[in-house]
Structure formats: C-alpha cells, structure tokens
Design goal:
Layout (H helix, E strand, L loop, with lengths): L1 E5 L24 E6 L9 E3 L9 E2 L8 E3 L6 E3 L8 E8 L37
Antiparallel strand pairs: 1-7, 2-5, 2-7, 3-4, 3-6
Length: 132
C-alpha cells in the first residue's frame, strides 16, 4: 500500500502509465483501489481512461469515506497539476485475485518483480495472502 500526497500545484504521480506497462510490469489481473483521506476531486483526483487506449480521461472524484476500484493494470492513469488549492491524501493499493495467480506479465520476456520494491510478484514477496 502507498500513501499518496498530491499537494497544490504539484502531482502525486508524475508519469501517465498503466501498471502492466514495460516500466512497471505489474501482473495481469491486478485490481487498483484508492481510499481518499481527504476530498479527491478535479485536478486533485486520479485521472484515468475507461478502457485501454480509449484516452477518454476523467477524474475519479471521491469524498472522504468513499473508495473505488479500477483497472489501472491496463487503463492509463495519472495526475494533473493540482490547481484546487487543497492537498489530496489517499491510501492506494492493488490486489491480485487468486484467480489470476500465479502472476503473469503482459511482457513475459521481462516480467519479474516490482521495480520500486525490488520484490518478486508472489505470495510472501510483493503479495500477502488474505484469508477470512
């Protein structure tokens, strides 16, 4: 999980991307979740497209107490410069359903593990298994 801080006149994520792309190489099937700790609207929101390469970008407007899931694995998303004058703070994470396990990459020749965390995409590495 990550805490994202999106300050006024700044960006929380500087590059438009999808999580399974060649730079990030997240496993196919991951689902993104975002839980705002503050209001997340307009240029303080995460912006995304509705389908891969559709380029119909829209803000994921959420109030405190709401959450959303989306296909950040294949849909481009990112941030605009925050012109709201208010800082957005959110708790962002991904889940890989067991139906998509073992993990597979969109680009198998380079698939391996998290670029940022330096861990393999497996249980005990990048993932922790959740059971009721």
């Amino acid at each position: 999980p990550n805490f994202r801080i999106h300050p006024p006149n700044g960006k929380a994520v500087t590059k438009w991307h999808f999580d399974a792309d060649t730079d990030h190489q997240h496993p196919v099937g991951e689902v993104n979740f975002v839980i705002p700790m503050t209001v997340m609207k307009g240029t303080a929101a995460t912006w995304m497209e509705s389908e891969y390469n559709k380029e119909d970008y829209f803000p994921l407007d959420l109030e405190y107490g709401q959450f959303a899931s989306f296909n950040g694995n294949r849909c481009h998303h990112g941030n605009k410069v925050n012109t709201t004058g208010k800082t957005r703070i959110s708790f962002d994470f991904r889940i890989l359903p067991m139906s998509s396990y073992p993990p597979k990459g969109l680009y198998p020749e380079s698939f391996g593990g998290s670029v940022w965390m330096k861990t393999k995409y497996d249980i005990g590495g990048y993932y922790k298994k959740f059971e009721e």
